[in-house]
Specification:
Radius of gyration: 19 Å
Shape: globular
CATH superfamily of one domain: NAD(P)-binding Rossmann-like Domain
CATH topology of one domain: Rossmann fold
Mean pLDDT: 96
CATH architecture of one domain: 3-Layer(aba) Sandwich
Order of helices and strands: EHEEHEHEHEEHEEHEEHHHEH
Oligomer: single chain
Helix content: 40-55%
Number of strands: 12
Largest sheet: 7 strands, parallel
Structural class: alpha/beta
Length: 303
């Protein structure tokens, strides 16, 4: 089977390639910058989502496309439209033209509330493109994804080590370890009636998700601290986002757009959209997963 993959150099994409390599499955992956550390069984295609020639090479003779690549944070909200919407359209058109029968699209829970952020709106529009493609499709909306190589939750680990983890107003969210998410994507590659034209919202199996305070305190436990966890208002977070933009410029991690969905109180995976347990279920308990992630950060000297 030829598996075509976008986002292979990213956080989730690398985890997926780890799983495929362990299972002895090869893949063809798109990358703007081809890694110098070549993986066995991976054929790299140089180019981006706006490069039609590269997309044509990527999907040629492929049985399935796993579309992970996307923009999650930017200080220029219009870039979400360029990457997440136009990029998805280009990929879908290339897949249709090449006769690829199946596509798996990694979206986001943010697509449930498109009015909260430009990011969520772009993911919702991308979902509609995939659903209207005429292909055999499955959409996955991951909740908060953590694990080795992640840079977003790493900010919380770093703050916890310093003894304070500022959080949004009180709310709840679901979590999933990146390895469990990668295993799910592999499980979804074969087409079946259970997965065709379905939108799934996977999680770690914790009913009702995690409160923001519990997430922060568990990350504190993972780094050996008991941090102070203040809940910050939306106005305060917006002010901090503007400060982050002044300090880190386009590399700012906290953006005004992110504040829009961070302050929403409910990012718990919908039980009605859970993956059938006969097909997949999360294997990594979140406490242990956060602990092992902290160990990875220390090993790589991030912490």
């Amino acid at each position: 089977m030829t598996i075509a993959l976008t986002g292979g150099t990213g956080f989730v994409g690398q985890a997926l390639l780890d799983v495929l390599e362990r299972k002895g499955q090869s893949a063809r992956a798109l990358a703007r910058n081809i890694p110098s550390d070549r993986r066995e069984g991976v054929e790299w295609v140089g180019g981006g989502l706006s490069d039609r020639a590269a997309l044509g090479r990527l999907v040629s003779d492929a049985e399935v496309v796993v579309h992970i690549a996307g923009l999650t944070s930017t200080t220029q909200p219009e870039e979400f439209e360029t990457v997440n919407v136009a990029g998805t359209l280009e990929l879908v058109e290339a897949a249709v033209a090449a006769g690829v029968p199946r596509v798996i699209f990694v979206s986001s829970l943010a697509a449930r509330e498109p009015d909260l952020s430009a990011y969520g709106a772009s993911k919702a529009r991308a979902e509609r493109i995939v659903a209207a493609s005429g292909l055999d499709w499955t959409i996955v909306r991951p909740p908060g994804v953590y694990g080795p190589r992640d840079v977003d939750y790493f900010e919380m680990f770093r703050m916890a080590k310093m003894g304070v983890v500022p959080m949004p107003p009180e709310g709840r969210s679901s979590l999933i370890h990146v390895h469990d998410l990668a295993e799910l994507l592999v499980a979804l590659i074969p087409s079946s009636e259970e997965v065709t034209h379905c939108i799934f919202e996977p999680d770690d199996g914790r009913e009702g998700g995690w409160t923001h305070r519990d997430v922060a305190r568990t990350i504190g436990w993972a780094v050996g601290r008991h941090p102070w966890v203040p809940h910050l208002s939306k106005d305060m977070l917006s002010l901090m986002a503007r400060a982050d933009r002044l300090v880190r410029g386009r590399k700012a991690r906290l953006t005004v757009d992110r504040v829009g969905y961070m302050t929403h109180p409910d990012w718990v995976a919908d039980p009605a959209r859970h993956v059938p347990q006969a097909l997949w279920k999360a294997r990594i308990p979140t406490r242990e997963g956060l602990k092992s992630t902290a160990h990875w950060y220390r090993k790589k000297k991030w912490l």
